[in-house]
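Before going further, learn to read the protein records used in this course. The integers have meaning only within a learned vocabulary of local backbone shapes. To see the layout at work, look at the sequence and tokens printed below.
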Amino acid sequence: MISIRPAVMNDASIITTFLHRLAEHDGHGDQCHITEEQITRFGFSPEKCFDTLIIEVNDEPQGLALFYMTFSVWNASPILFLSDLYVNENCRGLGLGQKLFAALAKTAMKRGCKRMEWQVLPEAAAVGFYKSFGARRVDDFHIYRLDGDNLKNLADNIQSKSNQESLN
């Protein structure tokens, strides 16, 4: 028996576990620092930033799709952005990933999205899986990232300038 359902707060522990397993699988386990408390705060509180679908086999969680909404000005519509997709290793090959993707597509359509997007590591075995649905690689844009000290320095710099301008 396979079922897919929206995650609830009591799923924070399993979501955290699955995300750490995904990071390990991708060879980036040392970079995944998400905690159960952060999942609860950002997934199930007024500060909610993401949604999660849980796929179960015989009422046991076996995978997830963690996603959030963004917006396309060009298409004037929301976009469902898939952050993480994970299926337990012992359940791979059973079609659970396909079922999660179909559930995401239905969610996207219900929310008025004209597209779904996600990022993929270049060497990921999942590339073929995504292409099997008709997904295509988008080369029009490059991802840029500002983090750590650079993010803090920029924020502090803008704040300092803003404070100085108000004093003048």
Summary: Strands lie at 2-6, 51-57, 60-72, 77-87, 115-118.
